[in-house]
Design a protein that fits this description.
With 154 residues, the protein is α+β, with helices and mostly antiparallel strands. It is 33% helix and 29% strand.
Length: 154
């Protein structure tokens, strides 16, 4: 083999290796990507089934039922409500009427959470969550389209 052919083989091998590494990194990123949906979007079947996503809103008053480490509650955005099941220890700031974000999967009409996060301050809300709550309170039928630009697509 000539020196020129060796160089071409090395460059070709490097290009293939870099391409394979880039494909693996993008695949890992795509599988770990988690989108946020409001209860109205979940009830409108805009949330992916069989895929992990986040749901956020307020914990409906009178909906929390605790049985040891098994917890059931309802998340609402004032327009729609979604029942949530969680097994584990809830955050200390978890309370009825307060903001919550749960991560998990939809199983039928029940959201099964693997992680529950309670908001520490009602003065701050992520822009996507604030927009979704505002639109739900005003009865906007195009609720899902507002978050499409923020990447909330299956």
């Amino acid at each position: 083999m000539k020196t020129r052919h060796k160089r071409l083989a090395i460059v070709g091998g490097l290009v293939v290796a870099v391409g394979a590494i880039a494909a693996l990194v993008l695949n890992a990123f795509q599988s770990n990507l988690v989108f946020f949906y409001s209860p109205s979007q979940v009830m409108a079947k805009e949330a992916p089934s069989g895929r992990t996503f986040r749901i956020g809103g307020l914990v409906e008053a009178g909906s929390v039922k605790v049985d040891g480490t098994h917890v059931q509650f309802v998340v609402t955005d004032s327009a729609q409500s979604v029942p949530v099941r969680f097994t584990g220890i809830l955050p200390d700031l978890f309370k009825e009427g307060k903001g919550v974000v749960a991560q998990g999967q939809l199983q039928g009409d029940v959201f099964v959470a693997r992680e529950v996060l309670a908001k520490h301050d009602e003065n701050y809300m992520p822009p996507e969550a604030a927009e979704a709550l505002a639109k739900a309170q005003h009865g906007d039928p195009k609720l899902g389209k507002s978050l499409a630009g923020a990447g909330a697509q299956p």
